[in-house]
Amino acid sequence: MTDLPPLREVINRHGLFASKALGQNFLFDEQLLDRIAAIPGKLQGQQVLEVGPGPGGLTRALLRAGAQVTAVEMDRRCLPALAELDEAFPGQLRVIHGDATKVAHGIEGPFHIVANLPYNVGTALFTGWLGGESWPPQWASLTLMFQLEVANRIVAEAGSDAYGRLAVLAQWRSEARLAMKVHRSAFTPPPKVMSAIIHVTPAAMPEGVSARMLERVTEAAFGQRRKMLRQSLKGLPGALAALDQLGIDPQRRAETLTVAEFVSVARALS
Ligand code: SAM
Predict the structure, then answer these.
(1) Average pLDDT, stretch 65-74?
(2) 234-262 pLDDT, tens per residue?
(3) Euclidean distance between CA atoms 266 and 248, whole angstroms
(4) Within-domain flag for 189
(5) Of 12, 24, 198, 233, which one is least surrounded by beta carbons within 10 A?
(6) Are residues 131 and 40 in the same domain?
(7) Among 17, 28, 75, which is best to mutate for testing ligand 1, by the most ligand atoms less than 8 A from CB?
(8) Do residue 110 and residue 228 come from a single domain?
(9) Are residues 150 and 243 in the same domain?
(10) 78 CA → ligand 1 middle, Å
(11) Is the CB of 166 under 6 A from ligand 1?
(12) Residue of 24, 33, 79, 123 with the most ligand 1 atoms within 8 Å of its CB, for mutation
C-alpha cells in the first residue's frame, strides 16, 4: 500500500484551514474513511464521482479501494493536496476544479457517487440525482453524508414525524438506507449536529407514473401537512376524484399515506 502522510500534516502543509463559507468539516480518521469507502461495495476498477474531496481523506480511501475517481472540488486551495494523491495513485484520479452543481463530470458508463458535502449543496444535488423522468439513472449508487436529521427524513416511514417529500422522493423508485451514523467529534472542526451516511440504489420505476406529477402531489400534500388531503389537494385538478377512485379517505393527512399510495395517486393523475 502507498505510504501517505497523515491528513493533518497535509492540511497544515497546504494551509487548508477549514472555511465555514464552503461548509468544510474534514474527516481525518483513516479507518473510518475506509469504512465509508466500503459502503458502495467492491470498488476495484469501478468509476466513482466524489463531490467535495477537500484535502482528500475520503479520496485516498476510495483510491485504496481500487476505484477510478473523478473528484469535483470548488476550493482551489485543495488542488495541490489532491495532485499529491494523483502522484501516489497514478492513472486513478481525475480532479475537476469547479462547483459540482454546475460543472459536467464527463464520466462515461455507470458510476457510484460518494460525497461528504455541506448540507445545502448535498440536498440540492441529492434531489437532482433522484429527480427527472428518465430512469434508471446513470449512477449505480449514492453514498452521501448528511446531518442526521436530514438522513432520518430520507429513510422515514409513513406515519412518522420525519416523513415527508424527501422520503417519497428517495423511496418511490430507489432503496434508501441509513448506512452509518457519524459522531460530530469525527470531524475537524466538529459541526454542531450529528451526521449520518445514506446509501441509495436505484430500483424499478413504477409504471405509468410521471415523476413531475408525483412531485406536484407531494408538494401539495406536504405543503399543508397538518391539513386533511381534501383540503391540501383541493387545488390539484382531479386529485379528489382520484382519492375517491382509489378508496383513500380524503380525511387522512399527508404523513399517513404510504409511498405506494402517493404513487397510485400520481399514476391516476399522470
Ligand atoms: N471530503 C472531505 C472530507 O470528508 O474530509 C471534505 C468534506 S467538507 C464537509 C466539504 C467539501 O466540499 C469541502 O472541501 C468544500 O470545499 C467542498 N464543496 C463545497 N461546496 C462545493 C460545491 N458546490 N462543489 C464542489 N465542492 C464543494
Answers:
(1) 98
(2) 999 999 999 999 999 999 999 999 999 99
(3) 13
(4) yes
(5) 12
(6) yes
(7) 75
(8) no
(9) no
(10) 10
(11) no
(12) 24
Q: Are residues 226 and 93 in the same domain?
A: no
What cell was used for 3?
505510504
Query: Which atom of ligand 1 is found nearest the CA of 99?
Result: 24
Do 130 and 54 share a domain, yes or no? yes
The answer to whether the CB of 99 is under 6 A from ligand 1 is yes
For residues 107 and 20, state if they share a domain: yes
Contacts (Cβ under 8 Å, ≥6 apart) of 71: 49, 50, 51, 53, 56, 59, 82, 93, 94, 95, 96
For residue 92, report the phi and psi dihedrals to the nearest 5 degrees: -105, -15
Last residue of a domain, one of 185, 202, 219: 202
The closest residue, in CA terms, to atom 23 on ligand 1 is 99
Using the 8-state DSSP alphabet, how is residue 77 labeled?
G
54 lines ligand 1 (CB under 6 A): yes
Indicate whether residue 52 lines ligand 1 (CB < 6 A).
yes
Protein residue closest via CA to atom 5 of ligand 1: 26
Reported residue count of the chain is 270
Q: How many domains does the chain contain in total?
A: 2
Q: Predicted confidence band at 112 (pLDDT cuts at 50, 70, 90)?
A: very high
Residue 138 lies in domain: 7-202
Alpha-carbon span 114 to 186, nearest angstrom: 18
The label of the residue with cell 422522493 reads 169
- Strand stretches in the chain, DSSP E: 26-27, 47-51, 68-73, 93-97, 111-116, 139-147, 174-182, 187-188, 195-202
Return the half-sphere exposure (C-beta side, CA atoms, 13 A cut-off) of residue 228: 9
- CATH of residue 109's domain is 3.40.50.150
Rg of the Cα atoms in the chain: 21
Amino acid 148 reads L
Does residue 1 belong to any structural domain of this protein?
no
